[in-house]
Amino acid sequence: MKANKSQILIIIAFISIYVIWGSTYLFNKVAVTELPPFFLACIRFSTAGVLMLMIAKIFGFSFKITKKQILNSAIASLFFLILGNSVFVWALRYVDSGFAALIASTQPLFVLLILRFLDRKPMQKKSIIGVFLGIVGMVLLVSQQELVTSRETILGILVMLGCVLGWSYGGVFVSKADLPKNFLVSTGLQMVIAGVVLAILSFSFQEKWTSPLSWSTNVQISMSLLIILGGIVAFTAFNYLLKVVSTEKVATSAYVNPVIALFMGWYFLDEKISTQSMIASAILLTGVYFITSRKRKIKNINGTSKT
């Protein structure tokens, strides 16, 4: 019964990071067109973090946290929420949401390269093919003159690639780091830390802070969904999965997120999907498949390994 319950939780968690995170590109794009990016991220993560800690308190989860766990939470917050997410949202001002999701789909490639340099293990044939296809797909994607129309767009793409690299390293770090045992406490702490840092960044860049009552209806809805679904539900599921399955398996969300983001960007924001983008995405996601489908060791629920 316990094993079945764990398997169900894993399935629900994967659905969360697949579907919900695929839709957050649209919600962030809508919000960042009206709100300053660091202010947006500060409100989103601060609110979600406080709510998560309150839920953890209500359910009586332990708040015993060591100094090492606080430090590791701060490092995870830096790579995930500040660099990997908030700076990524800043770049969304210059890049379409579906296009951004395709850039983010390179995460498994970055994870593989990071693990290669950290573990010093030779790449398998499937990995080499995957890396090659990933690079080809990325070149096709970013070489479109009709999409890369300005220096701001090029800057946005380069910044996003840096953000994906940071997020990828964060995933590798969290899978091995000593963090608070409860996922609500761990995620809530990371979000509160991010909220404080982002508030400092927002004031440093002299962003204008406004009341939620003055936001448009679309922005209010987008922010609510980002906080509840994208923050509390999906990010908690993500942290949970990093502890019970392999980092590379968690990175398979890169298959589904771009498809959902491309469709929602096309349907709701009238974003263009070029033939070259479709070809590039097919090649890129095929590369992701080769990377994540190779023979590897996966952690099971009990922390042991199996092939």
UniProtKB/TrEMBL annotation:
Q: What is the lineage of its organism?
A: Bacteria, Pseudomonadati, Bacteroidota, Flavobacteriia, Flavobacteriales
From the Swiss-Prot or TrEMBL record, give the protein name: EamA family transporter
Instruction: Name the membrane topology term.
Output: Multi-pass membrane protein
> Which InterPro entries does the record cross-reference, listed alphabetically?
AA-Vitamin_Transporters, EamA_dom, EmrE-like
List, alphabetically, the Pfam families matched: EamA (PF00892)
From the record, give the transmembrane residue ranges.
Answer: 7-26, 38-59, 71-92, 98-115, 127-147, 153-174, 183-203, 223-242, 254-269, 275-292
Tell me the compartments it is located in: Membrane
Keyword Membrane annotated:
yes
Identify its protein family. Answer: Belongs to the EamA transporter family.
For this UniProt record, the keywords arranged alphabetically read as follows:
Membrane, Transmembrane, Transmembrane helix
The reply to whether Transmembrane helix figures as a keyword in the UniProt entry is yes
